[in-house]
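Hey, resending since the last one bounced:
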Amino acid sequence: MIDYSKNNYKTILKIIITAALMLLAVINYHEAVDLLIKIYGIVYPLLLGAVMAFVLNILVVKYEKQYFPGNKNKFVVSSRRFVCILLAIMTIILVVFFALRIVIPQLVKFITLLVEKFPGVYESVVKWIVENSHEIPALQQKIKELDMDGYAVLNKVLGLLGNWTFGTVSFIGSAFGAMVEFILAVTFSIYILADKEDLKNKFKKLFKAYISKRKKNKNL
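The structure tokens again:
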């Protein structure tokens, strides 16, 4: 016999609603995916901000231990969190700056070397294919029909990359959108760090309230 108690009724209702939602999602697959993408786009800056706050918090805690520890001066106490957050952000910026100073010159050298050496390597490869592709006449014919030296191929590739990267309005829009998302994420991370004790207490209260409610429902 089916138990129609209040607790079981709620469980059955939850299962029916979940199954109905899953069925709707399967039937309207494309709409469901689009909705999830939109929700992710809205939530992404918050998630990024939470991750940034987690990383920055490691530095903030360390700086707070060094920022006049034990000092009860009102100004020191009130400014400790703000100053330490600022120091943590500056530390990350400096680390990224010095990392880029090392990486970017090497990347420039690599691209320069690639541009210098590519035409010669390309022509050598094409020559080798033509000389060793007698058993595949179609391939040999296609290579000959290209009629492009290494410099022409390189210029064509660079032109396509330039058009794809910088030649569209969508790129500018994407760059602006990414910048806005980054600013929102930084703002959210600062908010989390500034009020982390208060937020922690609120989450604890919510968690306790949720657990108490579940226990209460089980006892009904």
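DSSP finds seven helices and no strands in the chain.

Sorry for the duplicate.
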